[in-house]
Amino acid sequence: MPPPLAGKLTVSVRFTWHGDAQRGAQLLAPLRACAPAIIDTVDLIPSTALGQVHSDPTDPMPLLEDHVLLEELTHDTVETLLGQVAASPALAMVEVRRLGGALAWHPRHASAISHRDAPFSLFAAGLAIPPLAELVPAQLAAVMTAVQPWSRGRTLVNFAPLTRPERVTSAYDPATMARLRRVAAHHDPHGILRARRFLDA
Predict the structure, then answer these.
(1) In the predicted model, what is the mean pLDDT of residues 107-126?
(2) pTM, whole model, 2 decimals?
(3) Given a cut of 80, is residue 87 above it in pLDDT?
(4) Residues 134, 140: Cα–Cα separation, whole Å
(5) Long-range contacts: 54-62, Cβ < 8 Å, 24+?
C-alpha cells in the first residue's frame, strides 16, 4: 500500500477517455475539483498500459470477493455503501463501476455476455489471510444485503466466482444459458472442462 494511503479510508476514482485529450481534461476537471487528490496518476498513456488504471496487483493474491449488478445508483445507495464500508474494516475494496457505452452495444452475432443493459456494477473484496479471512465472508454478505433495494440480482461473468455455481449461472440470461449448455454438450460431452459443471448446475 502506498504510504499516503496506508491506514486511511480513501475514495479512488478511475477515469479513462479515448477521444481528444483537451476534451478529456475538461470532463475530468469537475472530478478533480471535488476534493484534494492524495495521488493523481491521470495522464496520457498507450492502450497497452490500460491495465494500470485500476492499479491491480501484478501478482496473484488470496482474495475473497462478491459482486452484483445494480439497477441504479442513488444518493441513498451511496450513503448505504459508505456506511457499509465504515462497518467493514476487513474489506480491502468496495467498488462501483459505471457501465454502458460499448459494453451495452448488442453484437450482431450472439455472444456469451448477458445483462449488457445494467448501468452499474458493485464489487467488493477482502484478503483471505488470517485473521481477516474469518471476517471477510460476513462483511461481503452484509454489503450485498445492504444494496438489495437497488440490486438486479445478476452478475457479470468476469466477476462470478467459480466456487459458487449459483453465481455463475446468474451471469447469463435463460436464452444464453440454454445455448451455452448446447455448445458444452456438443464439444465437451464428458465434462472435462472445469466450468462445465456450473452449466449443469
Answers:
(1) 91
(2) 0.81
(3) yes
(4) 11
(5) 54/14, 55/12, 61/127, 62/127, 62/128, 62/129
